[in-house]
Records
---
Amino acid sequence: MNTYDKYSLLKQNALIRAGKLCCDLKEAIAGTELDFTTGRLGRAIFLLSVPMALEMLMESVFAIVDIFFVSKLGPDAVATVGITESMITLVYAIAVGLSTATSSIVSRRIGEKNQEGASAAAFQAMLTGFVISLFIAVPGFLFSRRLLQVMGASQVIVNEMWGFTAIMLGGNTVIMLLFVINAIFRSAGDATISMRILWMANLINMVLDPLLIFGIGPFPELGIKGAAIATTTGRGLAVLSQLVILVRGKKRVQLALRHIRPDWPVMKTLIRLSLGGIGQHFIATSSWIGLVRIISIFGSTVVAGYTIALRIIIFALLPSWGLSNAASTLVGQNLGAGQPDRAERSVLITGRVNMIFLGTVGLILILFSEFFIRLFISDQAVVAAGCEGLRIVSLGFIAYGFGMVLVNALNGAGDTVSPTIINVFCYWLIEIPLAWFFSFSLGLRENGVFISIVIAESAMTLSAFWIFRKGKWKFKQV
């Protein structure tokens, strides 16, 4: 074969691969009926991870859109959103924990080809989330002013802007159900539905926010209360759409009248499994609060740089969380299908892909850190602090890419205890003490905090890999 023929063959193969990739991408976004317990794992991972990554990006848009419009109302309005969001952290923690438990059970039933069991478990998850949300909604709505006072809000916020908090806490049911039902779709393999639901919710929120906040056209000018109504309406209509799909759609999970009854053993299992996920969220959140407390000693400039760097890092990690969710679904379904070896291979392949992806992202952030920080602020001192933090933390992206996949895989198998223990060990017993030691005993100041983050995330990966290789998760019954 001459040089020209070799070149033509290479070009032809490249075009074929590109065509297959485009077809897979189209299928991933449009939706697929693929059985994820058979066929090529690489393709299964791709078809699941693309819509899951896009879904994670859409979830972050809610906060960005709200703060963009609310910021036009002044600092008190922005502070109201910040204080309320800190209280809603409890809702997110419970929603994430319950979603983790739901994914574990539903994916296992789907893998067993037990769609009836998956549908029954789905309703129990929704019922559990609804009941729990009521215990937050009622006192949250009735005592919103008092809660704002306890959180240290100014009298202007307490007297004039309490409506935002009352609506957000009172309407937390839509947050809870949105998380849980999207977890049902993802774990069943219908990740595209979750993605589209959040697209719709965000679009409604984007349109209603300026209309209700500023009173454009026939809409009343509601100020910050309008932002709460817009967000709750967007999520509420999304939940309504989810329910219609579950009842009238022809997807892997379908609800019928026979499923609409309490099943206490299943609800008990959901609550037991969700406690691990809730604990993981609280442990990680509290560790970040501890780091901020240490960093605050070095002044507001450093805190500002750290805050901006953290926002960039979280946004960069969103696609990786989508990949990790794909691993969780594949583990649950393949364990349900009695294929633990395929479940293990899916984790290793996904982990390798995530390491390559996050390693590339980390390299970009290291090389162009100043560019990304300056997108948010131009103050040179803040830029310098943010760049240093962004560069150091990005060094750990490769390890973290594998670690988050391993942790989600253990959760997907129904082992929520091991990741909780890992979080306690890495975040409370390693990260916080090391941050203090490096910052003050070694005199590294804020850089000591950044270094401790890299060490803690690397320790998390090593710990999760050790537990993963032991293989006890393969025999977990849910």
Note: The CA atoms of residues 128 and 268 lie 9 Å apart.
---
Amino acid sequence: MRRAIAAAEEVRGSTSPNPPVGCVVLDAGGEQVGVGATEPPPGWHAEVVALRQAADRAADGTAVVTLEPCAHHGRTPPCTDALRAAGIRTVHFAVEDPNPVAGGGAAVLRAGGLTVHQGLLRSEVENGPLRAWLHFARTGTPFVTWKFAATLDGRVAAADGTSRWISSAQSRADVHAIRAKADAVLVGTGTALADDPALTVRDEHGTAASRQPLRVVVGRRDLPGSARLRDGTARTLHLATHDPHEVLRALAGRGMVDVLLEGGPTLAGAFLAAGCVHRVLGYLAPALLGDGPAALAGAGIGTIDDAVRLEIEDVATIGPDLRISAVPRSRG
């Protein structure tokens, strides 16, 4: 299953609106004979990719899949049909498919005489490559990660407005790797006008990656024709609104599943106040400014009782910086 999870992670960011799924096929003797992951639409699902690699050796074998095999005919035939036709006898999957149209594959396989086990490494899959897609499938809206870089005293810029560079080159490279897995990168017009960001994915030499997330600008102010967000190196969408829910509905309609919010303090505050931040990713640099804008503003928090409490998922050292991943605690 961990090999299947790794395969799914390798394609995360290229499969939306389909889920990034990984599959490993073992032959009758338990030897790995096929590994597959979801192809970009309208390509094949992970099970079919792995089964084609396994060929005749899949007969009487086992399939290990991160998500319950689909049982419906969409762009491709049902994966349950492919598994049965290949002669697979046992299927292990981690997470049930919450999609009422595609779900139910386990029952179909059992009815066809296969042995099916579910729940293997469920937590690793739910909090790994499938997290954003599962959120999208269950809620109909994208999963939003708010990313920011700040000093240890929480400043995202100095008093004179300068902010390049608060975080290290290593942290910036890490952000590019995270952008590469996102469907869309989101900023407000304030940040777009003040910083003139490119919001593209680039390698260590500054070369743009072949696959770029959608660049999204939120707000009613126009961008000048000279703005880097208008340079044509990646698709750009300008949404003339300040409503986070309206933004997410628009992105959902475009099949955007995993969104990286890189806007300034005001946009971040609006999304947090609206309950539209599902993960916080903070890069803390070992520096102090003492003055300047804070990482968050206008979040509607007036007293300590209203604080948004977070549960830390991961802490890592990235160069000289500290990267903290956390999710809001559920209330009630």
Note: The domain at 141-328 is CATH 3.40.430.10 (Dihydrofolate Reductase, subunit A).
---
Amino acid sequence: MPTNEAEQAAMHRALALAETVRGRTSPNPAVGAVVIDADGRLAGEGATTAAGGPHAEIVALRGAGPAAHGGTVIVTLEPCAHTGRTGPCTEALIAAGVARVVYGADDPNPEAAGGAQRLHEAGVDVVGGLEVHAAASGALRPWLHAMRTGRPYVTWKFAATLDGRVAAADYTSQWISSAASRADAHRWRASVDAVLVGSGTVLADDPHLTVRENDVLAEQQPLRVVLDRRHRLPDDARVLDAAAETVVLDTAVPQFAMKALYDRGVRHVLLEGGPTLAGAFVEARCVDEVVAYLAPRLLGAGPTALGDAGIGTLADAVMLEVESVTRLGEDIKVVGRPRWTDQTAGD
């Protein structure tokens, strides 16, 4: 049976619920779920909790209670059919007496896939693919990418002048972007699993790499990661304080760093390093999204946002598919995704 308006509306709600837990669920996906009772009324809703806690479907079923029997569950990702830190969501749905499950994206994880088939075999009506583009390009995008490629999704974030400078000729850089852009950058940090820089950035700027809300440390912090192949990180660097966990990796190779972080359960990395590190990640095709804050200033000299990326001619330039352009105070924020020619790096 095709979906109806109530299920469409419930999926939109489930997508919004998934957004509320971005950066808080890895290595599990950020999923939202809604339960509609047999009479078409909202009975329960929920989103995936931190690793080891209940998945979105379980939270929503608990909220619905007996009203889930004979009802419909709308969920952004195909329910899992395996036992990990928690039991299979499929079995919980079957036990609750759900009559119908409507989901967005298929689960590409070979260990967890097969949920739709299991539900169908148990007599549950199953429909997949509802708002699949919205689901796959929303809170699920980093996790889906990680499952398909075996490495975290990488967002490269930088602030620059309109002529592309990230600092002046004397290397002063605070503050190129506006207060609105800096606040937005902290929201980005809050939505990822890890923030990554090189030791050069630590030596130059001594960043804290934490999430702050109105200058107050947020309760939840991403993992701080420093690539330090030459062991230059000073013992008193702010990134080594107790405000958040920090990992120092003895490598300058993006692929090695990504493998190490993936093995730690990291699925989304925010790259905040300087031009050299950014160039290395672009050359290695380890950038999946670019977030640029462009300030209405001109410097004419000083380091540029992107260092050597192994691009020698205009024909080899990395093209970006621009997803959004917005105003933040006096600044312009541009979000784009590289169109790699062989598509092996993207999702």
Note: The longest strand covers residues 153-161.
